[in-house]
Amino acid sequence: MCEPPKYPWLVNLRASHFNPYKPKELQLLTGNVTGVNVTVDDGFWIKLMLALRSNNQWKDNYLVFTLNDKACTNFKVHMPGLYKILFGPNLNLKEECLLKPGTYNVNNTPIDWTFPKFPVMPYGRFKVKLTMGKAEQLATCLFIELRHMPKLE
User: Fold this and answer.
1) Which residues contact 1 (CB under 8 A, 6 or more apart)?
2) Angle value at C-alpha 79, between 77 and 84, nearest 5 degrees
3) Tell me, what's the pLDDT at 150?
4) How high does pLDDT run on average in the chain?
5) What is each CA distance from 86 to 12, 44, 53, 63, 109, in whole angstroms?
6) What's the whole-model pTM score?
7) Within 10 Å of residue 89's Cβ, how many Cβ atoms?
């Protein structure tokens, strides 16, 4: 788990429940992302540690992804739906990528959870620990629990 929230970037987001009877209906996202005194740029790193739920227990470190730099650009590339609703529609990769300090709010905003460049994942329940920082300084730490399901055409 992450220690108490003393990080320069805090994430407080909640998605509406997924309706399996309406799988193409987008979930709604509510909450905010707040950055204080630290601008996130491409000098930051991201680390994702995924645990898989299997046989009634979590298998920690099932997959570990480390992106040693370009955190901001990787956010644009791998999570464009979330980036657009939080930080604006500009997904131009040729421009400098900066996430400036401030509070970014969303209120019942439909979100497309498509990750176009992320590797194909097995189906199941996952717990994700995401950390981001610059050098040894941690900027944020958060946990996400999700269920990965087959895409319906």
Assistant:
1) 143
2) 95
3) 77
4) 90
5) 12, 19, 30, 27, 10
6) 0.86
7) 9
